[in-house]
């Protein structure tokens, strides 16, 4: 088997298992109160981490580029209660325009 | 993004309930992301064929792994001669967050084990984030509707990239990479309803930012999940 197919197989099995572990093990059952409180905190924690990594991460470097400009525009629009669809499009347009300059 | 009638429909639907209207609502909410994801799917297909990874391997990987960051990392590392071990390690670390994410939506994914497995494969950052109602509650219809549409666009994009080649150009020149942090910020803004959620968000951001220079990509996000321990004690 070529290297590529080994990667497809191993990464595929690993990723599918990671996604399925929780739902297959405890799917459909209520979580105990403590676990529920932790899940409630997990969403904002991971969303904030995704904002940071998607905006400034480049491998192991922190870079300030057009993505951050797009994010700044998004933050301003969100403060003015613009719907998310408009915010996402404006962020992409900002980055595209800055890169085209 | 959601209309008034959608908001009413969401409030009336139990978190674990699967309705046609809810699935369509999730798919609608995911349309702009599906466009961006599709464009990255095309560039993944192009990268895989041009780097010698192979078109068929890329298509199979998009249908099974369905995790953009992991797939790009694996293929780039293999292409640069990093070896199978390094490629697998990077990809698995980037997918590591799906452990806690899967756990968070486990209560709403009911049905037989094989059905739970299949539904869980539609979990990705975007579908999970869109399905979050705050307070630890997730909407199954939104998760599956959004995840289903994004899966189709990722798979179709990969196929187009493999077969059609580089007709779109670099998705980054269209600014599409900037769409994702903006989405996550918008969804985060709707989540921070109490002090604990605010503290969790600040901690998550600080942990991720502080770790980026010191650890491999993927680990900062996994480590940020530890901020969920702010929920350990009752307020």
Task: Provide structural commentary.
The complex is a heterodimer of chains A (101) and B (235). Chain A is mostly helical. The longest helix of chain A has 24 residues, at 3-26. Chain A is flat. Chain A has a two-stranded antiparallel sheet. Chain A has helices at 3-26, 33-56, 66-79, 84-100; strands at 57-58, 61-62. In chain A, α3 (66-79) runs antiparallel to α4 (84-100). Chain B has helices at residues 4-12, 20-29, 31-50, 55-64, 68-79, 83-95, 98-105, 113-120, 125-131, 140-164, 179-191, 195-211, 219-224; strands at residues 132-134, 137-138. Chain B is globular and about 55 Å long. Chain B has a two-stranded antiparallel sheet. Chain B has 235 residues and is mainly alpha-helical. In chain B, α3 packs antiparallel against α4 and α3 packs parallel to α5 (68-79). The interface between A and B is large, with 80 and 106 residues.
In short:
The complex is a heterodimer of chains A (101) and B (235). Chain A has 101 residues and is mostly helical.
Give short descriptive properties of this protein.
heterodimer; A: 101 residues; mainly alpha; 2 domains; two-stranded antiparallel ribbon; 2 strands; B: mainly alpha; 67% helix
Set out the fold topology:
The complex is a heterodimer of chains A (101) and B (235).
Chain A: H1 3-26, H2 33-56, E1 57-58, E2 61-62, H3 66-79, H4 84-100
Antiparallel strand pairs in A: 1-2
Chain B: H1 4-12, H2 20-29, H3 31-50, H4 55-64, H5 68-79, H6 83-95, H7 98-105, H8 113-120, H9 125-131, E1 132-134, E2 137-138, H10 140-164, H11 179-191, H12 195-211, H13 219-224
Antiparallel strand pairs in B: 1-2
Helix pairs in contact in B: 2-10, 3-4, 3-5, 3-10, 4-10, 5-6, 9-10
């Amino acid at each position: 088997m070529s290297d590529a197919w080994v990667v497809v197989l191993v990464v595929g099995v690993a990723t599918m298992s990671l996604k399925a572990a929780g739902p297959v093990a405890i799917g459909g059952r209520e979580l105990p109160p403590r676990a529920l409180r932790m899940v409630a905190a997990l969403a904002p924690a991971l969303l904030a981490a995704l904002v940071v990594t998607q905006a400034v991460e480049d491998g192991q470097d922190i870079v300030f580029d057009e993505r951050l400009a797009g994010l700044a525009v998004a933050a301003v629009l969100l403060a003015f209660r613009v719907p998310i669809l408009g915010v996402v499009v404006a962020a992409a347009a900002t980055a595209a325009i800055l890169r085209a300059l | 993004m959601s209309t008034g009638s959608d908001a009413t429909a969401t409030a009336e639907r139990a978190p674990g309930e699967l309705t046609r209207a809810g699935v369509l609502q999730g798919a609608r909410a995911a349309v702009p992301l599906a466009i961006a994801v599709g464009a990255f799917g095309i560039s993944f297909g192009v990268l895989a064929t041009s780097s010698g990874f192979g078109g068929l391997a890329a298509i199979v990987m998009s249908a099974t792994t369905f995790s953009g960051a992991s797939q790009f990392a694996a293929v780039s590392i293999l292409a640069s001669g990093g070896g199978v071990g390094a490629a697998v390690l990077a990809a698995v670390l980037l997918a590591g967050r799906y452990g806690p994410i899967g756990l968070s939506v486990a209560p709403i994914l009911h049905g037989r084990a094989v059905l739970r497995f299949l539904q869980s494969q539609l979990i990705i950052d975007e579908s999970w984030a869109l399905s979050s109602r705050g307070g630890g509650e997730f909407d199954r219809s939104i998760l599956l509707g959004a995840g289903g549409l994004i899966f189709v666009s990722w798979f179709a994009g990969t196929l187009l990239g493999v077969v059609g080649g580089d007709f779109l150009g670099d998705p980054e020149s269209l600014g599409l990479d900037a769409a994702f942090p903006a989405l996550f910020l918008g969804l985060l803004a709707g989540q921070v309803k109490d002090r604990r959620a605010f503290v969790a968000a600040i901690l998550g951001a600080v942990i991720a930012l502080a770790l980026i220079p010191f650890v491999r990509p993927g680990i900062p996000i996994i480590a940020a999940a530890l901020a969920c321990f702010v929920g350990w004690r009752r307020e």
